[in-house]
């Protein structure tokens, strides 16, 4: 469905809700740049919770009237969306870029977050990672996403996924190359924007129950120096957080290992909110 969200401008948000119970909001990443990234989560999580998904500004079927791209802007948009929906307190789940947005949101509005799940994300890129993000942005601006697709796929998924889940690889490729979902100019602009936030020194301000998740075979730039580097920094910085490393999981561990990811998230949310 489409929701018109009014704040500094009118944002037409592509949004869906399924299930009943505790409100859980899922925020997608960049690459598979729409709520489609949660295809393996919504059917299962909605058996237990009321699950809200949406396309962030400039991606999927959500517009971007002022052509603004920043993590802070996405956090503003999320606040406006939750206010429109009259959701005062939610469980917030962010994957990759969505994890950036979730961190900004919980730092801005801690009273609205009952519990937090940060999956395959970071509290800030290392300098060498930021440099690679800018280089990727420049390449996409010049030539579009197609020349980067196979390298992106190779670095995104664990080797086992190529053997056992070729349909997942094809699904990702199709979405990555679909300019309606993953507009190259939007993709490039957001990659530059992701080089700005640095929250490591502020992680101690996050007081809600938090689950940090990563895949042990994540090869993406977001991970830091090793597959678990960024996740360990988040875990150390957020008091009383829980860290789970998913075996044979790449950057999209929630898509590659959905049964494990869903069971882990459901258990955490139930324990954190009772």
CATH architecture: 3-Layer(aba) Sandwich
Q: Major beta sheet, specifics? A: 8 strands, mixed
Amount of beta strand: 15-25%
Shape: globular
How far apart lie the N and C ends?
31 Å
Task: Please tell me about this protein's structure.
This protein has 274 residues and is an alpha/beta fold. The protein has a single domain, classed as Alpha/Beta hydrolase fold, catalytic domain (Rossmann fold, 3-Layer(aba) Sandwich). It is 41% helix and 18% strand. The protein has helices spanning 42-45, 71-84, 97-108, 127-143, 149-156, 159-164, 166-177, 184-193, 229-237, 253-256, 258-272, and strands spanning 2-6, 10-18, 23-27, 50-54, 90-95, 113-119, 210-215, 242-246. The protein has an 8-stranded mixed β-sheet with strand order 1-2-4-3-5-6-7-8, sandwiched between helices. The longest helix has 17 residues, at 127-143. The two termini are 31 Å apart.
What's the short story on this structure?
The protein is 41% helix and 18% strand.
List keywords for this structure.
8-stranded mixed beta sheet; Rossmann fold; 11 helices; 8 strands; 274 residues; alpha/beta; 18% strand
Topology at a glance:
Layout: E1 2-6, E2 10-18, E3 23-27, H1 42-45, E4 50-54, H2 71-84, E5 90-95, H3 97-108, E6 113-119, H4 127-143, H5 149-156, H6 159-164, H7 166-177, H8 184-193, E7 210-215, H9 229-237, E8 242-246, H10 253-256, H11 258-272
Parallel strand pairs: 3-4, 3-5, 5-6, 6-7, 7-8
Antiparallel strand pairs: 1-2, 2-4
């Amino acid at each position: 469905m489409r929701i018109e969200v009014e704040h500094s401008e009118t944002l037409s948000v592509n949004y869906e809700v399924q299930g009943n119970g505790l409100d859980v909001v899922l925020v997608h990443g960049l690459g598979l740049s729409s709520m489609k990234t949660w295809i393996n989560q919504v059917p299962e999580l909605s058996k237990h919770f009321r699950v809200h998904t949406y396309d962030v500004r400039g991606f999927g079927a959500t517009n971007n009237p002022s052509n603004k791209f920043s993590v802070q802007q996405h956090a503003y948009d999320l606040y406006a969306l939750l206010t429109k929906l009259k959701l005062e307190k939610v469980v917030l789940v962010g994957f990759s870029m969505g994890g950036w947005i979730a961190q900004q949101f919980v730092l801005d509005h801690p009273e609205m977050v009952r519990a937090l799940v940060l999956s395959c994300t970071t509290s800030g890129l290392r300098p060498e990672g930021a440099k690679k993000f800018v280089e990727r942005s420049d390449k996409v601006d010049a030539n579009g996403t197609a020349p980067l697709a196979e390298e992106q796929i190779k670095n995104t998924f664990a080797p086992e996924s190529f053997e056992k889940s070729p349909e997942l690889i094809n699904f990702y490729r199709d979405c990555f190359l679909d300019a309606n979902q993953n507009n190259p100019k939007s993709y490039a602009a957001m990659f530059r924007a992701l080089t700005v936030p640095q929250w490591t020194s502020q992680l101690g301000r996050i007081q809600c129950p938090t689950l940090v998740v990563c895949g042990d075979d994540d090869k993406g730039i977001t991970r830091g120096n090793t597959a678990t580097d960024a996740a360990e920094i988040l875990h150390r910085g957020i008091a009383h957080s829980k860290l789970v490393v998913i075996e044979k999981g790449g950057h999209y561990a929630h898509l590659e290992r959905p049964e494990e990811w869903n069971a882990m998230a459901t258990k955490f949310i139930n324990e954190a909110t009772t």
